[in-house]
Input
Amino acid sequence: MNLTSCLMLSAALFAIGAYGLVTRRNMIAALMSLELMVNAALINFVAFARFGGGHAAAPDPEAGSLFALFAVAVTAAEMALALAIVIAVHRQRRHLDIRDLDGMHG
Amino acid sequence: MRDFFFYGLCAVLLGLAGVTVLSRNLFRSALGLLGVLLCTAVLFLLLQAEMVALVQVMVYIGGIMIFVLYAVLLTSELGGRMASPSPLKIGLAVVVAAVALGMLAGLAKKAGGSADRVRAESPAGSVAAGANIASMKSMGERLLDPRGFLVPFELISVLLLAAMVGAIAVAREAAVVPGAGAGEGGGGKAASAPGQGRPA
Output
């Protein structure tokens, strides 16, 4: 277990999330794919905090972990808003197909 | 032993991520995402970031996932199956995912390789043995230190409050577009046939 294997894992997770984000048509499913990608980013933060970047002169593990915590908080805010929008859209249209949400298309 | 556990965990995590992305049943894919988040928390424990692992379990699994499951149950029937994507879409998605994977893996090799070399060359014990581990106490002190992370910590609480208020405002029943004819209760039956983009 070293930095490279952790980064490889997060790259694979990110790619899976990107695949889902493109193929999914249901709004909630797309959000879940987005969540996978955010999770990949979190793994990166924690892995760099643990193993240090290239020049490990002054490693700062607290800052790395705290950065991950802030990212979690921002994601929580984002998901709360996104799911509120999901519920509002479902109430108005009775479906969640992303392709039909073109009300701002002009 | 530790490496073996790590690679097993990676395999489970990626498999569950595949379930999340590929399952045609929305509820099942939500459960897959739950498993991914749990595996990530275990991975954080392996990386000796206990605090992040705890927050992951509490915020992601206890908060966000419950919210996602509620949204799934509210908006779709349990046994419902989503339509499978068209072959064109799948091809496009494979290309996007392959490009992302290629770029990220190249970067990972570069950054990870040099960092791992530095670690391997540094005298044993200086970096490896525990100087690089954030204890919960030091993290808490850092978080509430005015010269540390106090300002972002307070700002993020304001952000969360604003997001919460905004979420309630967006999801509230009465917040339907005025003029759409959706009063209380009947919202969405006649007034919101699919495709009827905006009120006349």
Notes: Chain B touches chain A through 102 residues (CB under 8 Å). Chain B has three domains: 1-83, 85-122, 136-171.
